[in-house]
Amino acid sequence: MSALCFFTHVLEVLDQKGRTMKRRRGVALLIETSNAYARGLLEGIVAYIREHDEWSVHLPEQERGARPPDWLRNWRGDGIIARIESEAIANAVATTRLPFVDVSAARRLPGYPWVETDDAAIAKLAANHLLERGFQHLAYCGESPFNWSRWREEHFVEIANRAVGACATFEAKSRFAPGYSWNRERSRLRRWIERLPKPIGVMACYDIRAQQLLDVCRESNIAVPEEVAVIGVDDDQLLCDLCSPSLSSVIPDALGTGYEAARLLDRLMSAEEVEPDAHLVAPLGVATRRSTDILAIDDPDIAKALRYIREHACDGINVNDLTRVLPLSRRVLESRFQQLLGRTPHETIVEQRIDRVRQLLRETELPLAVIAERSGFRHVEYMSTLFRRRVGVPPSHFRRQAKDRRS
């Protein structure tokens, strides 16, 4: 049994004074731990257990789509929460004849309680996020073998058609198909993104697909977010921050989904009636990062200026540096910035630097002097004054607040 696998089969036992102790229910969790969404489900289940009666939990270490564990055939537990994404898992769970709750969109066992994210609400959040940034062209990059991807696509395309009249789509070939090759798939994805009208906002069905899309854009020298803005789903913070640029993502309520699944299973194990329908959990919002942090701009010179600022603001550049890389005078440059963005090039440079200060305060213990240098400020006093003016609190106070939120 692996280190992640723990199980205590507890029958009615006597404590040291001879009193009968309450029997713990045995619950199997057939949920992978290899991705952020699944780990969020487990956190939600843990939260429910902490608030209610303790369960004896069996959590095998397994990957998504893995075969059912051998011990399940002879297991004498009370209930199961499972990501039922294959016929093998479906058959194994059904054979136990135990109460169970499904937390997969695959719907291998219809007619039983099923808890999932609200894909219509996810698609709406992503579409509105891109539309609010002024994009007149929208696209969806999906993974057709999965229900959740098709459902998100259906709702996203519907919203896009109403808002801007059209929506391009990319249908990925199944990773499980014979002869599948990621190199060929990447070439298809590159040709698709190169042919799309620019600027365009793209919803990827989940963060891994979005990461692949960002990689293809970089290979094709397509500016993100100036030409292609990308938003994913799952808010896998490590993956989103490792993307270049960092990835905006819809935040599903994975914890709430796991909590609801545990609540329903508890009712089933108590022989209560539970609706054998979908129990959908709404997303929490959008985590905005650099991959969509822009307004859609048809002016190629200003789009180039914004890209240059994003890449070099912390190198100490000023407005004169912009005029050296653009075929525009300072007066024309500032006029177009005001017209399109409602702010000056200098204000845009400062805003980028302040964002970098925020990041370093949240994620590091670097001294303020080092943070000033790495953010493009010559003097720490000026950085602190400007930060307080724009953020509302001094840098040291902001850092303490960030620590308090993490603890």
From TrEMBL:
CDD domains from the UniProt entry: PBP1_XylR (cd01543)
Entry keyword Chaperone: no
Organism: Kolteria novifilia
PANTHER family in UniProt: LACI-RELATED TRANSCRIPTIONAL REPRESSOR, XYLOSE OPERON REGULATORY PROTEIN
All copies of domain HTH araC/xylS-type, residue ranges: 303-401
Molecular function (Gene Ontology), one example: transcription cis-regulatory region binding
InterPro entries linked to this entry: Homeodomain-like_sf (IPR009057), HTH_AraC (IPR018060), LacI/GalR-like_sensor (IPR046335), Peripla_BP_I (IPR028082), XylR_PBP1 (IPR054031)
Protein name: Xylose operon regulatory protein
Gene3D superfamilies: 3.40.50.2300, Homeodomain-like
SUPFAM superfamilies: Homeodomain-like, Periplasmic binding protein-like I
Keywords: DNA-binding, Transcription, Transcription regulation
